[in-house]
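Task 17 of the worksheet. Students: predict the tertiary structure of the chain below and write it out as structure tokens. Keep your answer in the requested format; marks are given for formatting as well as content.
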Amino acid sequence: MLTRPIKMLVADDAQTMHGIFREVAARSCGLIELVEASDGRECVKQLSGGEIDLAFIDVYMPEMSGLEALRSARHVGIKTFVTLMSGPDSDHFMNLAQQLRAYEFLRKPFTVREIEAIISSYRRVMGPTKVLIVDDSMTVRRIVQKVLAGSVFRMDCYEAPDGETALAYCDRVNFDIIFLDCNMPGLDGLTTLDRLRLRSSDAKVVMISGETGKNYEVRALKRGAAAFLQKPFQPLDVDAVLHRLFGLRLPDLMTWADGHADGEDTALERSRSDVHAPVGSGGRNAPAGA
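Model answer:
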């Protein structure tokens, strides 16, 4: 958990946009330190310094596009929490934004409150999340832990091989989330869920199952589970559940359908003619709201 001000980068060649982010920083009462860049090369330089916590990067910038700047940063291992920005006609960049591991894509014009909502999500996503994985199969527990490692949330994972061990863990550790398998020998998942509820645990229980046809989802939700995931599930499935459970707005990028765009290199090449369009009055590089 950050104990210092958040270092936030805005990279955009429109001064109107810089004014909006200055207002956000001013409203934070010192909790945000704003860093500004007006072209893609300066954006890469700031990101490469490794001190930027989160960044808002415009797709259309001189010298180097925002997409190329982010790609360069990702190539050298920079994992900054990034939101890309562009005009309302930006759907053709969404798949590439996903591939570059952007968190969100904001369409101009947007408001101060939309920026602040992303900053709030950043604080929760980067905060510690204690997770317990309960499954009688060690292989499944490791698979689930690998899936969770791909989530945008930072998770500290514990494992339990059965319901009794899980209950004992919960007496000692305050978990935020428990991923609990329905079908286990001995104390099964639903019975473990009942006992967790009786103990008034604050943990949100996500029931998981690889079986179909047993109505597990309906039964689990009726008995107090916070959510249900059918195995096999992916990091985006986990992210969608955790956003809902933590009261966060689900980013548009997480709901963007897979498989309707080309690979990263092809998509980047295809986008270059648009991204490098000349700057002109009222054109693609016009300030938000222009």
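Marker's comment: Confidence is low (pLDDT under 50) at residues 257-290. The domain at 6-103+251-275 is CATH 3.40.50.2300 (Rossmann fold).
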